[in-house]
Amino acid sequence: MPNQIDTITDLTGSETMAAKALNNTLDPYVPSPEKPWNARRVAHLYRRLGFGATIEQIQQGLQMSPSALVDQLLDTAAALPPPTPPVWANWISGDYGGDKVLYDQHREDMRFMWYSDMLDESVRARMALFWHNHFVTELLVYGCNSYMWSYYSLLHEYAFGNFREFTVQMGKNPAMLVYLNGNLNEAGEPNENYARELMELFTMGESNGYTQLDVVEMSRALTGWQASFNECTPAFFDPAKFDNTPKTIFGKTDNFDFDSAHYLIFSERPQQVSHFVTGKIYRHFVYQHEDPDIIQGLAATFRDNDWELLPVFKQLFKSEHFFEERFMNAKIKARSTPCCRFIKWAA
């Protein structure tokens, strides 16, 4: 595939002024006779940000300004405590004593917990489901109930948090280590699977800012983290399996390790990361076809806030653009995504 390093550049001078003019629709939505704050727009917000609204919620929303309602929904969701772990959250295979009925029951419990959260938490549960479709794993592959729980908990903990740290922690999660073969990535025998998906699917987009050499060198930096899915023991770092030698990624040479290699993506390819991630957010919550001017503004907000997600969500959901008539009943194109792999295999 062709190399597209640095295809996205910063705007300067008159281009910056033009971009600002085009981005006016990211300004907060102010109701007007032509664009009233009505039940349809309140319902639209709840439908995209959560799983719909009751009549009472719509009536309450009408008594608030659009920006105040968005703040209330997002701040409340972001302030929720981490999910309460079940008693089996840290069980290893031996704790089940070969009791398959109990093993399956815990999976069933997890499935109902996910559905209950969708009803009770709505906004955070919707966001966790979105990130499940981004940082994909599959229970059928990694198998362990405890890994399923740690993955589920992480999705909720970082749903509105710092995306850079979210990405680092997801790479160390045992479900991800098994699913994308991170646990097979060792010094002298690097496995490129996770390194490639980290750049292609999780941060920058396909062939956008990296080369095959970057994939190889990144995989060497990510060595050492292990997860034994046969025993379902917690993930751990094994120094003996870490490639403790210099690597060259994006033209920079250092003895990069797991964390520093992840951070390098954000420091060396901020344009690619910010546009790719905000574009995915836009396609999921607004419309299937990106508006490049809106993405430009959201990407700048993402970078300016040191990869914090909440400011991006607030800017988008408060915007004039989000509440435009053309998006009120627009259907989001169905995609072939593994959105239900966690839920289906939790049964």
Q: Which keywords apply here?
A:
347 residues; 53% helix; two-stranded antiparallel sheet; mainly alpha; single chain; flat
Summarize, please.
With 347 residues, the chain is mainly alpha-helical. 53% of the residues lie in helices and 3% in strands. Helix 5 packs across helix 6, helix 11 (193-203) packs across helix 12 and helix 15 (292-304) runs antiparallel to helix 16 (310-318).
Q: Care to describe what's here?
A:
This protein has 347 residues and is mostly helical. It has one domain. It is 53% helix and 3% strand. It contains 17 helices and four strands. The strands form two sheets. Strands 1-2 form a two-stranded antiparallel ribbon. Strands 3-4 form a two-stranded antiparallel ribbon. A hairpin with a 2-residue loop joins strand 3 and strand 4 (252-254). Helix 11 (193-203) crosses helix 12, helix 14 packs across helix 15 and helix 15 runs antiparallel to helix 16 (310-318). The protein is flat and about 65 Å long. The two termini are 39 Å apart. Mean pLDDT is 89; it is low at 1-23, 335-340 and 343-347.
Strands, count: 4
For the biggest sheet, the summary is: 2 strands, antiparallel
The ordered string of helix (H) and strand (E) elements is HHHHHHHHHHHHEEEEHHHHH
What's the alpha carbon Rg, rounded to whole Å? 22 Å
